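Table S7 (text form). Paired inputs.
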Amino acid sequence: MNPELKKFDDAVATLTAAGQPFELDTAEIGGVSFLTYASMPANLGQYFGLMQRHADKDFAVYLQERYTFGETYQHSAELAAALVERFGVGKGDRVAILSRNNPQWMMAFIAAIGMGAVAVPMNSWWTTEELDYGFKDSGAKVVFADRPRAELLAPIAAKHGLQVIAIDDCSGLAVASTPLADLLRDFTGAAMPEVQMQPDDHATIMYTSGSTGHPKGALSSHRGILSALYSWMLMGVATKMAAADIPQKEQFPPAGLLTIPLFHCTGSHSAFLLSLVAGRKLVIMHKWDAQEALRLIELERITWFNGVPTMSAELQAAAQTSDRDISSLTDIMAGGAARPPDQVGKISGTFKKSNPGIGYGLTETNALGAVNAGAFYVANPHSTGRVVPAVTQFRIEGEDGQEMATGERGELCIKSPANVLGYWNKPEATAEAFVDGWFHTGDVGYVDKDRFIYIVDRIKEIIIREGENISCLEVEAAIYNHPAVFEAAVFGLPDERLGEIVGAAIVLKEGAEMTTDDLRDYLAQ
């Protein structure tokens, strides 16, 4: 084994031993035994209380707004009290959040879960028709919404009996609402309601797109989310311990740039929730713009960046011609899609003080899975990394359900206490995807001798053309190599003679030109 990998594994073993900060234990969830962390809080309400450790430090920065950890927690407590006393929300009730990223989104999330309700972050890009399904499925009766989304609720609010809490100015709309600012005024100084919450009580419903039909609501427990957070914390501490003999870079206070929607687990968990215990300031972008990102990195001394690969590519391109001081930036992570391998080298070349990284996880795993970062990522840019320790197991499963040998391809399956409890209101889909504690991801991959994981395809996105399997990922990778291509997605289209043919949706770079014949000629080379 690589000596540096052994150092990391040894550090994990030390940190998870009896009496250590990440001591391991076992717990039974749904009749299946899982590893878990002995010192983990029993619920997210207790976890939110850890914000008081950094009470006077800046936490949420958005446009002209700036809130400390203490202010954010206090406002969340006030909103929680309002949910109970003004809106009659009780333990287990669903509370929706429908807004663009802002500090009030995070306050609403803490408030709902903190008083025992189930937070239901909804996709802020959904149409009224999609929202109609979301409220019917979730049963949420109270929703925090900003003006553009509140406007979409007007045709369906009465149908679902919705009570709207307006995050910003929603006056003049055809839907009644209560201003969030009024609730903060009316409940000033209120304490977080005291509610008994168990580790496996329901905490969130996060909607995930399916290959067919409506989105599925992934139902998570408090334990599920906390298991993901503590696993990332363990990985961070173990990484520092393993690198103790390496000269450290100049240290800046932890500060992250939030570019990912909070209704996705990558945004809500690895960016937002992990910051609460780490004391990490979060600077929220109003909308993505690479030049604005560089300005904020310099102004707020950002140390951590996470976005889809397209964002880090644009950031790298913009940084090449910028004179901004971005020396504080030490981590450039990506998730949500595979990062083209050549981009890894460009990032490490442009951001010489930074570690590029990629994360793999799904809504069904609370975003926990694998991570590849730093020198290991530069050396293995095609890999999504190794499993995040220490309570998560990966295996590659063949069609017969047996584990495949090293280097052999099969379906990637994940067993972890971070896995969600199942799909809300969908027992058949739950039974199909979750078997004996193992979540079947639908991704095809393999592991190498050092347990690095490689994702090579998606089971439901293999195109079968005249009996021949065609990998969507391989075709996408080839298209991405064309200099005019900005984004590409490959999929199968029905064909009467061949069964399926290859289809692609492509976005060109600004100012670029390319015809379909140009692309066909390029791919034929």
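Next pair, protein 2 of 2.
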Amino acid sequence: MSRIIPVAFVILVTFVAVLVLSRTATTAGLVSDDAVTLWANAITAGDGQMPLGRIVAAYPTIPFLATTLLEFITPLGTPTPVLLTAGTLAVLAGVWFISFQRAGLPLIAAAMAALLLGLHPAILRAAIAGPAEMILAAFLFLLGCAFFDLRARSAAPEVMAVALALLGLAFSHPIGAALTCAAIPLLIFAVRPEMLASSVVNLVMALIFPTAFCVGAFAYMSWVFPGSGWSFLVAPAEGLAAWGVGFAQLFGRGLTGSPAIDAGIAVVIALLLAAPVVPFAITWVYRRRPLVAPPLVIVAMTVAAAWIAVTTGLFGNPAALAVMPPILAAIIIIRIPVVRERLALVLPLLVLGWLGGVVGLAIVDPRGATNVAVALEGHGVDQERLAAIDLGNATVGRDGILVDTFNAPAIVLGRGRARGLLSPSDEAFTLGVLFSRIDTPYVAVPDPQIGIGAQDRLNKAFPLLYRRGAPGYRLIYEKSNWKLFARN
């Protein structure tokens, strides 16, 4: 019983902290668009309003299926992504605490280290971003631990552990897919040298086969159902564009003139600031290659993933890589004995890393740092999303509402459920746009002069709908550039 109480304390503190922070971030509009879309899709799937093809080919797969399952078993209106994120981080912090104690850290030191890393600014940023980034962090931790085991033994269980961790990374987040791609050429540095001399090709194939097979199968399903086989690997271009704008505001034309190289440099700077224990630990054991190779591989694959994301324009915002430093710090404390023997230096380095993590986030995710500053001043970050949530609240109790929820998924969040909304996946929406005829009890459209309105499918099909309404319909709601019409 005495052993359970400290673990429960660490888990509870982390869980409550993430719940409170996520609630505050949601109110302030700091939650990412990807997290809002994931939540809306989970509500839609849980209500049985999403076609089977979209469920099968949904990406990121792991957080979507987990959120959908929670949405299905929890009461209506439960913030399932927040629960999933808080639960994942709480379990991760508990695992760190137990691992630190097993590695020889005293109780108080293990609790302090677990909380400093579990509530690290980079980890909290991932928690605000939603379950996809939190699950990405969990699989990155598993991969790092698996690299140490692979370097030590390179037997079948260790090979499969790395292979499954890579698979989890690829299907947890678009940036996780970039990390997987970046890791493939670096795997030869993560195995024992004698294994390379005998069967390097077979070993690498065994490491990447599960991921390659699942990516191929998933691409086929995505092509069969939604109609674009590789779309699940392409994050919205807006995320990368927003990162580029924020980076340009911070560094002008950049550090080197190449955005891809600048992204890699930003990751390295963030590591030095947010986890100074990592370079210290590497210098302490630099002659012991089995202990040095795994962390260097993780750093190299993260830098390469940032370069790949910016160079290709795929995989979305590289700011998600900011979670790597505290994850690597936890791995090093658990796996490198010399670090645990120097607690008098390690704990201050963790505190310094917590403080440096704030600066590191401003470098890796300048747009996010700007949004936080705006929110702290009392201003809403995303007024369009808040307006869509208000419209969703206004639709409660009404059914048969024609609205483009693909363009404004926050409507589903405001309503609390998808049943009663006629989205672009419904036949009524498709036929209405095809024949330029509206014949539903309600129809909602945003102002075509704002950003979300310019992309709205109903505005494109009926350019005068917002301004003049539809024949036989009357205006029953108008607020924040949204109008809701009801049939007479």
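DSSP finds 25 helices and five strands in the chain.
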